[in-house]
């Protein structure tokens, strides 16, 4: 049947790939649309980069995931902006819309750069698959299209399925790009056309059929010409529009006509491509005409069967969560939102007063909260466990939870409590994780003490009313019931909070968000729906429900960090060490870990409290096990309910008796002191018992609800009437799709109930946007973010949207920030964290100034350069320094401040002995850098060889000294290519593939080693003049660039990982002239006589690693083989060196027999771990 004539909507409504329909589709797209043509983005000068002045193609009010995907994977994906093209992110904001408008374009550009890098990485690793287009269809008028591809090799579909899980991003290109050295070189102003490719989502993979469904977006304005007269027009605007049109033509097989932006009522001639003689004028409202100069459609080319090449390009889930959180910033608790948008002078004063340095007497920390001070054993425990700065952080966090009046009365320096953030800065080695554990202990104890006090007051008031104590009730009503109940702490009452932005919150949540499974979708009325459904079923089926809690809501704490490793490290400490209560005893809070089911769990301790594992344990139970567990909990809750009822009656009777006693006293006389004391003691004990049993019963009812819900959905006697059938017909329980739906529903409800029941929930920042946080009934009024300086601000927003009223930010802005790939986003300060922005505006975080890691010689320069010389050494560090002074105590002789320039006994010590000091800068002047042609990462083979030989020296000293244990050693470098080169050097020198691991040496990039430590750190700086070119004429900060090695935060991380020795390997001239900070480090090392000039591995380490062996390894590493004159000695010394080398070939001092038959060939095969070793 011929295609119907197109309507005037200008939208694509079908996408069948036969020629007739494709021609009609193209005709329909060529009609003019009612809205004006899209205005091109404007690039502005660096001096005018206010977000309000930059044209913004994204509406700040559109926060849906669909909008994010369209803008992230749309035409702008193929444009790399200049550094000054995006708006600067200011330090303060006028309002919520200004905040969104500032972050949104930068967040989208960073997302695009992540997609580009993931795609190029897939190409570099050969992950590209040949697919054939089978069909194309349009998804209504949304602009989305779905292409179905066929894989000739069905095994490729299995690989694609593993590399591209549900909703993963992929790129399809018209030509293979895997063998290209640079598939997409940078281009500007349209001078170089990007590859003809399209980004979208792999929605479905069918391995049996060999099919892949690919969803992508094409702008409805793909056929509209760019107006070159528009302000800010640039050539790349037209290049992108033409490119988008070319991609669509390749999918449809039809040449599309360009619509000029100036015409208003354009008409085009109909081109009969179908040959059926039917014209659109017979059924459409207007005939078509073509203006002069426009090109008519030509006969279609066959698109079906065209070969495309598909490559994975990562996922957008984390970025989309930040995007949604950004658009929901208006939902934040009003004081928190105001503090983030516009920290006024008052708030800055509050921040400075609350977060003062302990060393400044004018900024002394607040006293302990009343709940802590009332328990001397807990105070004594805290003072034993934590030093003064750590204790100050704990006190401030606890005082932060107190009511405004209490803070103003007891701690004049805390001031107004409207600023809801506490900042704690933890430099390297200062016990930050230990401090966070203490903060959580105190926060949990204080919050739950106040929670039980509120319950106690609520019970007392209810008892007074039941007992007829009118005087007591009148006293409470005169004081204000709400104020009396909240006395001494925050409000935990569940009948709603008096947020001044409550109306705005409900209004913000009233719209539906498509394509979203996040915690931000839907209205606030939907919050807790899964948990409510579970308990509603229990109430309908068994008439059992949880206690009302006397109208008091249980406090909850949400602990987040940017990485799984940081979260698991903190959670493991909480689980293993537990918390300390008021009497000095130990108690374990209810904790749970939320994250992706496939996320790696670092230990069994963490796995045991992971939500997905707990849900699996319940779902895998048999129906009869569910039934037995349900009945057991039911029997307990009935007994507990009766017991609580009896206690309540006794409580009311005792209150009535005491009221009669008071009434019997003469006028003006109070109750008898002994009677009053006994009455208060008994009532308190009775209330405590009531609360304990009440809490245990609620746990039992929760367990009942879980098992009952499992039986109702998955059991053999489940309700056979579908909830979504209006005719009442029964559904088939054997339907596998229905079964899968029920399992998903049950799992979601179980996970939500577990999270809702926990007192402390641990999650990464990204995982805190999971749907489970929307399904819980109660939010989190307290949020703690560890490593807060490593997260960009949009990611930090996510946990704040779960009802947070206060937050503790812990981190160090002087260490590595969040990873940002886009240079334009970096220029806009997208990597800046909320922690860093607050400090820029005048906040002084609590500095943990006592360090427990570094030798004093290592600590000296980073403390002076990065922390204003405020770091001090703990007693443990000084004791370790004294122990290291003893010869061969741990194989690190001379580690107590021996200078490099000082002479040891040259007769009895090898040539390297005088360099075995805690802090040394090795000037490896014969090294040169080289660059990987594809990745651009750098390596320096001479430095890699030098680092491997340094470790050999360390190993020999340990064996000679017969220490208790080998010192841990790590080699760190800023570049991934150098990391691979160092691993290869270890393999060539010490026994083949995996040699570094066998020797216990960790080889890592600086970024990957943040948060870790080792006894000895060898830091390879890599940077050196190419091909040995000198840099003597370069000025500091001039043309001799050292790249991102000059980043002071990366430098700080690298220099603060070592505990007992830091050995820096580099070229002093390049470092000195490449960066002012590195220049100061070189100058300081020279003043301290800690520079080993003209360090050469051939001369220094010949007694440990033979020179010929070093020379052979250097050749294979690709380095410049330039051995100093006279460096090679004759055979006798080489043979002795070979024996030394064999002693370290298989580990710590274990010798091997290298003369065994076939040993050489096996060693060569093991060394060839990269497949590029020759036989030379």
Could you give the topology of this structure?
Elements: H1 19-30, H2 65-73, H3 96-124, E1 129-138, E2 144-151, H4 154-163, E3 168-173, E4 197-206, E5 211-217, H5 235-252, E6 307-312, H6 317-327, H7 334-341, H8 345-354, H9 370-373, H10 376-385, H11 388-400, H12 404-410, E7 421-425, H13 432-467, H14 470-479, H15 481-485, H16 502-508, H17 529-542, E8 557-561, H18 564-577, E9 579-580, E10 586-587, E11 591-593, H19 604-607, H20 611-619, H21 623-664, H22 673-714, H23 736-757, E12 760-764, H24 772-775, E13 782-785, H25 793-800, E14 806-811, H26 823-827, H27 834-840, E15 846-847, E16 850-851, H28 856-866, E17 872-873, H29 875-884, E18 919-923, E19 930-931, E20 938-939, H30 941-961, E21 969-973, H31 976-989, H32 995-998, E22 1001-1005, H33 1006-1009, E23 1014-1020, H34 1048-1055, E24 1058-1066, H35 1068-1074, H36 1076-1087, E25 1091-1092, H37 1097-1100, H38 1107-1117, H39 1131-1143, H40 1159-1167
Parallel strand pairs: 7-14, 7-15, 8-12, 8-13, 11-12, 13-14, 16-17, 18-24, 18-25, 21-22, 21-23, 23-24
Antiparallel strand pairs: 1-2, 1-6, 2-5, 3-4, 3-6, 4-5, 9-10, 19-20
Helix pairs in contact: 2-3, 3-6, 6-25, 11-13, 13-18, 13-21, 13-22, 17-22, 17-23, 20-23, 21-22, 22-23, 30-31, 31-38, 35-36
